[in-house]
Amino acid sequence: MDKLVVHGGSPLEGPLTVGGSKNTALPLMAAALLADGSTRITNVPNLRDVRTFSNVIRVAGPAVTFDADANTLTIDASTVNHPVAPYELVKKMRASFYMLGALIGRCGEAKVSLPGGCAWGPRPVDLHIEGMKAFGADIELEEGYVLASAPGGRLDGGTFRLDPSSVGATINLLLGAVTAQGPSRIENAAQEPDVVAFGEALKEMGAQIDGLGTNTIEIQGVDALTPASFRNTPDRIELGTFMLMAATAGAPGQPVEVRRGTHEHLGDDFKERFAETGVDVDYADEVVTVTRPETLQPVSIETAPYPGFPTDLQAQWTVLLGLADGTATVTDTIYDDRFKHVPELQRLGMEISVEGNTATVHGGAPIKGAQVMSTDLRASVSLVMAGMVAEGTTHVLRVYHLDRGYEHLEHKLQDAGINIHREEYEEFDEPAAEPVS
Ligand code: UD1
Fold first, then answer.
1. How far is the centre of ligand 1, averaged over its atoms, from the C-alpha of 237 (Å)?
2. pLDDT tens for residues 130-151?
3. Long-range contacts of residues 132-140, Cβ cutoff 8 Å, at least 24 apart
């Protein structure tokens, strides 16, 4: 297994460059299944999740080729003859469940494994299933699989209200509805930039969709979609992560550039809270420049759907609060139990307590290197961040979690002044079943 070894104390000088979005690439890949032909997607990050989803798609019949050096992925979906997403693959990554909408949309039927649990708690898929039913699918659950079919080969379309709003369910329902026989309406739809970029791509393929980026999306089904070429959007969570790294590991007064991100996709809440910490931040077209102040202010955050504070940045924010001058809280209103990084950060010396869905961080406790365990994707990057500012050496174990969502992170950080490298190690305990997230 691999670990990352971080020798703390060298300042992050930058620049850091943001890659393509994982959470947009995956639905774009699913969209390709709706067109009889070849779809090309550029700016696709070379990540474990992208390779996993490529394998999920191959099972259904299409040919997927990934030129990882050129970050270009081609999906030839001329043949989709096995509408199945097996447990062995779906358990590795929840987003494989997008195959439900993609396969119903293309073939009128699907057999997709239920994803099962996740490191952050139950994470149900009830809304995906109920929504498909509302759009006319017959659904049965059998031996851990969802068996879905559209009577007559195409969904009818319908109206469904998401409660709570869900990124994944919005994407799945869009995939199913764009080729339905009639109109559909998704209420309380997700407004995340990932959903908007995906919806725009569907429109380029010929889908008729109104209301992207608002909480009501209306779809008029069309007979079929046509293949297209897309450029994937920059990863907004990687951008936010790099900005937080600059705010914590940059030398005070020394600007750090984060390049090629789309700062508008961060949402206003993150930007406002970030400014309140006292950092100096300049947003230009494709460059965000962050200058760390002498003293970081403790600023509490509460996660919420877009444009609220992203849950995928709360673990990284917790590290910033560990360096701040005072006490502040991190409340996750989307996932109650997304605090697996906290005991690991405590091992590094941070003073944090968790009650319910709120972590309280007392900033200023000395952070010292230790061995720590990654438990999920964003937790693992928060441990690297803490290692960058720790005294001594931090070993971040089970880095395969991080590899799901950050492309060449250690190379990017090395080039930006951080003393970090990857090592293989032997783990004597059997790792628990891989959590899917
Ligand atoms: C996506 C992101 C993930 C991010 C999350 C929230 C991808 C691949 N993953 O996950 O990184 O943390 O959005 O921004 O894009 N819910 C239900 N029933 C359902 C579906 C969801 O109750 O059927 C609940 C969830 O438990 C959660 C909330 O809805 O409390 C939002 O989850 P959702 O937006 O669906 O997250 P994902 O799409 O799985």
1. 15
2. 999 999 999 999 999 999 999 9
3. 132/100, 132/101, 132/104, 132/172, 132/173, 132/176, 134/158, 134/159, 134/160, 135/160, 135/173, 135/176, 135/177, 135/180, 135/184, 136/180, 137/104, 137/176
Does 431 score more than 90 pLDDT?
no
Q: pLDDT higher for 337 or 287?
A: 287
Q: Is 168 in the pocket of ligand 1 (CB under 6 A)?
A: yes
Active-site residue identified among 114, 118, 222, 304: 118
pLDDT of residue 427: 85
Total-model pTM: 0.96
Contact 55, 245 (CB under 8 A): no
Sheet with 159-161: strands ordered across: 159-161, 183-187, 216-220, 208-210
Report whether residue 250 contacts ligand 1, using a CB cutoff of 6 Å.
no
How far apart are the CA of 2 and the centre of ligand 1, in A? 28
Which CATH superfamily groups domain 2-19+234-424? Enolpyruvate transferase domain (3.65.10.10)
Which residue has the CA at smallest separation from atom 21 of ligand 1?
166
Q: Is 26 in the pocket of ligand 1 (CB under 6 A)?
A: yes
Structural domain boundaries in the chain: 2-19+234-424, 22-231
Report the chain's mean pLDDT, rounded to a whole number. Answer: 95
24, 96, 118, 166: which to mutate for ligand 1, most atoms within 8 A of CB?
166
More confident residue, 249 or 116: 249
Reply yes or no on whether the pLDDT at 122 is more than 70.
no
CATH topology of domain 22-231: UDP-n-acetylglucosamine1-carboxyvinyl-transferase; Chain (3.65.10)
In the annotation, is 107 catalytic? Answer: no
The yes-or-no verdict on residue 435 having pLDDT over 80 is: no
Fold identical between 2-19+234-424 and 22-231?
yes
Q: Is 96 near ligand 1, meaning CB less than 6 Å away?
A: no
Average pLDDT over every residue of 244-273: 98
Minimum CA distance residue for ligand 1 atom 26: 123
